[in-house]
């Protein structure tokens, strides 16, 4: 049996095309909509198993290993960082499709990292984005970010050095700074806004103040992880602050947004089973495109 090796650059290139992002979005929609017993790979025998290992040869921290469930032999070894960012962003886009107002067109990005860039590629698949206001806590980062991404985005990208200006009229606010100190408080966002605080599982963060979370409807990808590593726990709140998981809303077991003035929050951490869903998609596209290098399995 052979193992496919994929660098993080190859993984990124495989996921960046619009059709690949749309396929990943559909994969996650199907997985989130499944019952809890079939949704999580730990509950039933999966097509593959996923493990994360440190990559000492790279400034990227993780390598993802996709195992055959029957033999345990690695079927693929791939750079994990773009895959994890893409799956977190795809889940965020799915949350926006379910929770933001259907005509939401004004977006604010708080942060100019890799995760925000993936979200910016995915949001137009679920909403007709017209304007994107970009703010970064580090001065002078917003402008280069806008220039780098403007060519591939069919929306007006506007850098700003004012957080208040960025979020004031935004209908969707995306935060992925990793901050451990809150910067969004009640009264700063518009009625009916949909807010997202996102990470890829590194540790607790606190971008939205506890008071803002308490007066909003909070949805997460995983309750336990939202408390342990997400914005809910980072704000000092417990599971009771979470109204529902995304899968519960998608399946109709719990309601999402219930009126236009309601502020909704998606706390996306990135559950481990999402790595599995994304890795399957990457492996399939790599095999179809003939990308990567096959080596004898250990």
UniProtKB/TrEMBL annotation:
Q: Where is the composition biased (Low complexity)?
A: 36-48
GO CC terms in record: cytoplasm
Q: Annotated region Disordered: where? A: 36-61
Superkingdom, natural source: Bacteria
State the name under which the record lists this protein: Ornithine cyclodeaminase/mu-crystallin
- From which organism does this entry originate? Truepera radiovictrix (strain DSM 17093 / CIP 108686 / LMG 22925 / RQ-24)
């Amino acid at each position: 049996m052979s193992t496919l090796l994929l660098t993080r650059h190859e993984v990124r290139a495989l996921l960046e095309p619009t059709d690949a992002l749309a396929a990943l979005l559909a994969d996650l929609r199907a997985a989130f909509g499944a019952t809890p017993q079939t949704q999580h790979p730990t509950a039933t025998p999966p097509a593959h198993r996923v493990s994360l290992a440190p990559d000492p040869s790279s400034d990227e921290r993780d390598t993802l290993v996709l195992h055959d469930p029957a033999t345990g032999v690695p079927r693929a070894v791939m750079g994990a960082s773009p895959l994890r960012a893409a799956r977190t962003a795809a889940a965020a886009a799915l949350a926006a499709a379910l929770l933001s107002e259907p005509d939401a067109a004004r977006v604010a990005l708080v942060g100019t990292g890799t995760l925000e860039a993936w979200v910016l590629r995915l949001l137009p698949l679920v909403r007709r984005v017209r304007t994107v206001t970009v703010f970064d806590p580090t001065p002078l980062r917003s402008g280069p970010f806008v220039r780098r991404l403007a060519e591939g985005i069919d929306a007006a990208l506007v850098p700003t050095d004012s957080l208040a200006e960025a979020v004031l009229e935004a209908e969707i606010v995306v935060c992925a700074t990793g901050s451990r100190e809150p910067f969004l408080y009640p009264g700063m966002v518009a009625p009916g806004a949909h807010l997202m605080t996102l990470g890829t599982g590194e540790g607790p963060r606190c971008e939205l103040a506890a008071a803002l979370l308490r007066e909003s409807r909070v949805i997460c990808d995983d309750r336990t992880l939202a408390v342990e590593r997400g914005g809910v726990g980072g704000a000092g709140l417990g599971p009771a602050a979470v109204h529902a998981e995304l899968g519960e809303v998608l399946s109709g077991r719990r309601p999402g947004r219930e009126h236009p003035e309601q502020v909704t929050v998606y706390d996306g951490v990135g559950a481990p089973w999402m790595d599995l869903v994304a890795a399957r998609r990457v492996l399939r596209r790599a095999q179809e495109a003939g990308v990567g290098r096959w080596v004898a399995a250990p």
